[in-house]
Amino acid sequence: MPPWTSGWRRRPRAGRFRITGHADRLGPEPYNLKLSLRRAETVKQYLAGKGVDARVIQLEAKGESDPVKRCKGGATPATKACLAPNRRAEVESE
Q1: Dihedral sign, CA of 26, 30, 31, 34?
Q2: In the chain, where does DSSP find H-type helix?
Q3: Are 25 and 83 in contact (CB under 8 A)?
Q4: 51's torsion region: left (phi>0), alpha (psi -120 to 50) or beta?
Q5: What span, in angstroms and rounded, lies between the C-alpha atoms of 32 and 75?
Q6: Closest C-alpha among 23, 15, 13, 25 to residue 63
Q7: DSSP designation for 88
Q8: ∠46-1-43 over CA atoms, to 5°?
Q9: pLDDT by 10s per residue, the chain, length 94
């Protein structure tokens, strides 16, 4: 059953979840690492609000280390738009 169905909210599946936060390459690496953790924490709060036991959610922060898209250039609007897919959180069930 997909996690967005109403039945899932009433009866969350047993198991654990890993939420991995990511950031783009713009900005200092330590900042991007913290930013990616905040992204993961936001998703955890959302899932907990939907009935998932927060104790079964593990967080991981990757910062800028695992991009899905590589773009050249500085912090221009075009580069920021190109790098948008790298600013994400991924949820996996274990």
Answers
A1: positive
A2: 6-10, 29-49, 77-83
A3: yes
A4: left
A5: 14
A6: 23
A7: -
A8: 15
A9: 445 444 555 545 558 999 999 999 999 999 999 999 999 999 999 999 999 999 999 999 999 999 999 999 999 999 999 999 999 999 999 7
